[in-house]
Amino acid sequence: MNPISNRSQWTWALLLGIVVIATRGQHIATLQGLPDASWAAFFLFGMLIPLPAALFGLFALTWGLDAAALYADGGAAYCITPAYGFLLPAYAALWIAGRWFARRYQANGRGAMSASAAVVFGAALCEALSSGGFYFLSGRFDDPTIAEFSLRFVQYFPTNLMVTAGYIAATAVVYFTGKTLVQNVAGLKQT
After folding, report:
1. What was the pLDDT predicted at 169?
2. What's residue 75's pLDDT?
3. Which domain, by its residues, includes 120?
4. How many domains would you assign to the chain?
5. Which of 88, 137, 138, 175 meets the CB 3.0–4.6 Å disulfide criterion with 81?
């Protein structure tokens, strides 16, 4: 994928940040019913914004949203446990998958297969790290086992993958539609 300009990177960072704020765990006044876009945002940040600082910036945003929700809830939060630290490598897996795909991008069937592989692999690793960390280290489950975690993985991963892939597909439509629109407008100016 051709590198995008710094201005475009900032624009995408702002747009994706707004989507994360609007959908993250229903913490604030949100668009009711939209699933969390965080996983897709980490993948897209990796794809569109190659700076590692982007990964940490987005992680800081999600952490800040979670901290604000924790504060607003008066300190009661089911998901804030010692396992919370596993979100950093989980989200990094998505960012790295996005970087991997960006280096292999092709506007053809092979590119679509690379994108699919990157999304599935990144999301599976994210699910294993985030859900596995929570299941085994949160203290919320009595006698956790690999067998029970495997059943939970099979139960929750397909939905998380569909949500992630859906947001990425919607972003691709916006990206390529906007790119085509800009090219068409630029072509009109030249004539």
Report:
1. 93
2. 56
3. 6-190
4. 1
5. 138
